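Now read this:
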Amino acid sequence: MRPRLLLSASIALAVSVLSACSGNQDGEPQPVYDWSALATTLDSFIGNRNDEVSGYSFALRVGGQTVFTDAGGDLTSDSVVAIASASKAPSAAVILSLVRDGKIDLDVPVGNYIGNAISWPADKAAITMRMLLNHTSGIPFNSPCMDDDSTTLSACAQEIADTDLNFTPGTKFGYSGAAYQIAGLVAEQVSGQSWATLVQQRLTTPLDMPSFTYGDTGNPRLAGGALCNAADYLKFTQMILDGGKVGKTRILDSSQIAAMQVNQVQNLPVFYSPVPSDSGLNGYSFGWWISDDANHPGSAGPELSDPGMFGSTPWLDFDQRYTAIILITSSTDTGIAMWNAVRPDILDQLNGTGSSGG
């Protein structure tokens, strides 16, 4: 066993003993967890093959408490990583907070909100915010301006608006990062604030997420441009698990959290999906993929996730009340493979079927 893994296992066992001894607020002892198998599984992915990673950062929360963190290779627990498409769920949450405030109706054509900011063409007149956030708008996957930090969000939105649709809005599922740029423009228009200000006021400040950022640009890439460390991202997913609140501060309504758990693209044909065909990620709702039940034996779910192109994969489980994230700099396929490998280690402990550290 490698020295780093020995340290990881020791930390996991120490956390287990501390948890058991501390008890909860009612004086009841906490479950005893042994995360050594989880640490071993994570470490097994470090290497030089195509299906391995140069490093990872991992964090796990159970019942609102961080019970295990780990890192290996060229990443640490504090590493801030480009999370690619794992940006979508936080972006959608910021926009849904504007829906909660009555500034946006999900089913009103977004042209009503765009005003004179850009020229919105007739072929896109039926597009709503619900379609943009759930990838049913017909807007193409990408646009060159999304890689240009020197332009503005409105200029990029105009470039996207001038692009032909892939299909009639609302008739298919076609994963689209470009659609989120339009959603960001709408958010700026209805609020009178920049995207950076909206994120700061509605997400990172109330949730205390200092590492989370879309970068210093007037053209933030809402669907894939954020960076974050593991601990801060789990503050966001914990808010979702807690029904849209952090402490006494409400970010989203409980009805919006419930809507995230319902497949918004049910029965729609798939024009394009970026996840592997055998991933079991066939449902989608407001920035989140919804796992097929077969993906998580040992949990009734639902299980939501937001894997990114570089492999960083956050997920949360409403039945088992846990959330975790794997940060890597590899590929979607590798991130999902790591997720599938560590999930049984987590569920074994939460269900009391794994080895005990007590």
